[in-house]
User: Fold this.
Amino acid sequence: MGLDGAYAQLDPLDPPETPTPKRPHRATLFAVPSVLFLLAFLILTLIHPRLRGDAAASAGSCGNSCRIVLVESIPEGMNITSPTNPSTFEAWLELLSSARRSVDIASFYWTLTNEDTRTHEPSAAQGELILSELLRLPRRGVAVRVAVSAPSAKAPLDDLRALERGGAAVRAVDMPRLTGGVLHTKFWLVDGVHLYLGSANMDWRALTQVKELGAAIFNCSCLAEDLGKIFEAYWALGVPDAAIPAPWPDNFSTAINAATPLQLRLNGSAAAVYFSSSPPPLCASGRTPDLSALLSVIDGADRWVDVAVMSYLPGTEFQRPERFWPAIDERLRRAAFERGVRVRVMAGCWPHSRPAMFPFLKSLAAVNDDRARLRVEVRLFLVPASAAQSRIPFARVSHNKFMVTDKAAYVGTSNWSGDYFERTAGSALVVAQAGSGTFRERLQEVFQRDWSSGYSVDIGDTESWAGRCGPR
Ligand SMILES: *[C@@H]1O[C@H](CO)[C@@H](O)[C@H](O)[C@H]1NC(C)=O
Ligand SMILES: *[C@@H]1O[C@H](CO)[C@@H](O)[C@H](O)[C@H]1NC(C)=O
Ligand SMILES: *[C@@H]1O[C@H](CO)[C@@H](O)[C@H](O)[C@H]1NC(C)=O
Ligand SMILES: *[C@@H]1O[C@H](CO)[C@@H](O)[C@H](O)[C@H]1NC(C)=O
Ligand SMILES: *[C@@H]1O[C@H](CO)[C@@H](O)[C@H](O)[C@H]1NC(C)=O
Assistant:
C-alpha cells in the first residue's frame, strides 16, 4: 500500500461536501503587512542595539555546537556520484542510537516493512531495521511518541500497532476533520537536541526506492526545542474531538521566525535559521506560515532560485472544484521579470503525476528570452526503473521538496500546490547562509548534480518524457 495508501488518504478531500468558501488570498493578505513589518523591524534593529542582539542571544551556548548534515536517499541502481551525501538511513540510525530520553516523530503514514506489498523485496531491509530499532527504544527507557495522520480505512496499521505494543505512544491527528487536509509533515526529534526534517516518509521505499532529501541536525537544543513546539501542536490535536485552539496558548508561540531567525553557527558557519509550519491555523503566535516562508526565500534571492520538487501545480490538487492557485508561480515569474533572477525548476514525474502539471511547467519555461533578459528553465527528473523495480507500487520517483538560492536553503515536506499550504500540515527548515562550505552550498551542489545529470530532461523535449510521466 505505502504511498498508495497515503494518497488514498487524500481522497476524503476529493469531492468536498461543500464548495470552499471564498476568502481573501492568504499570500496577498500577509505579503504587504509582512514587508512593512520587516522594514520596521530592520529600521528598529539598526537603531536599537539591544533589540539587535536579542535573536542572537537566545541561541545561547547551543548556538555554537550545532552540526548539520545533508542526507539523501538515492534509489537503488541509480548512478549518482559527486557529491554523495550520507543516507537518510544512516541519519535515522544515528538518531536512534543517540537517543537516551525521548524520540518524537511527526509522520504521514507507516509502512516500514514490505507487508504492504506482500512481496519479499530485499530493499525493504533498511526500513525493517529502522522499525526494529524503534521498537527496542521503550525497553531502553526512551519515551517514544508518534503523531501520524489519521489512518484511512485502507492504510496499513501493522507498524503503528507494533509500536503501541512495544510501549510507544501513538496519536492519530484527524486532519481531514480539522482542516480538510492530512498530516504530511516528516520530522524526528531526539532528546530535545537532535532532529531530522525532510521529504522521507516512514516507508521502506523512502530509504531505497524513492529519491529523498532532508537535513539532520545534531546537538542543537535551541532548534530542536523550537521544532518541538510544532510537534506539541500535533500532539495536542491527536486526542479524540480535539479542536484547533485560536489563539494557541502562549507556550506554543515562538520568537524564531522569518523576521527574527535564530542566529547561530551550523558546522561553525554563521546561519540564520527558522522553521515554518502549515496550514496557518496550526501556526501559533510568531510562527511563520510555510507559504510565506517559501515566498520570502524567493523574494530574498538576488541572483538565482533553484527548485527541486516532486509536484508543481499553480492550482489545488485534491479540492473539488479545482481552483487556480498562482501564489508560488506568480512569485517565480516576478523574480525573473522584475529582478532578473535566474529561475530553474526541476519537477519529479511518474505515472501518477497530474496531467495539468506539464502545461503549467511548459508555460513557466516559456518565460525565457535572451533579449528580454528572462532566464527561466524547467526540467523533469526521471528515476529509471528495471522491470522488477517498476513492479514496486508507488516508487521510483523524485520526492524531493527543496529550494536553494544565492541567499538561503529551504528544505520542506510539501508538494508545491495549493492544498499543501492551505490545508495540509507540513513544515520546512529555512537556513540563510553566505559563503562556502555551508549547508546552503551543499544543497546547491546537489541541485546542480541532478540538473546536469542524465536523469533530467528539458520540459520542451516531450519525446523523452511523455511515455513515462502522467497517466497513460
Ligand atoms: C556513472 O557515472 C559516471 C560519471 O557520470 C561514469 O563515469 C560511470 O561510467 C557511470 N557508471 C555506470 C555504471 O554507469
Ligand atoms: C554532541 O556533542 C558532544 C560533545 O561535543 C559529543 O560528544 C557528541 O558525540 C555529540 N552528539 C552527536 C549525536 O553528534
Ligand atoms: C503548553 O502547556 C500545555 C499544558 O501544560 C501542554 O500540554 C503543552 O504540551 C505545552 N506546549 C508546549 C509547546 O510545550
Ligand atoms: C505529491 O504530488 C504527487 C503528484 O501530484 C501526488 O501523487 C502525491 O499525492 C503528492 N504527495 C506527496 C506524498 O508528495
Ligand atoms: C558538518 O560537519 C560534519 C562532520 O562533523 C559533516 O559530516 C557534514 O557533512 C557537515 N555538513 C555540511 C553541510 O557541510
User: Anything to note?
Assistant: The chain has a mean pLDDT of 89. The chain is about 30% helix and 20% strand.
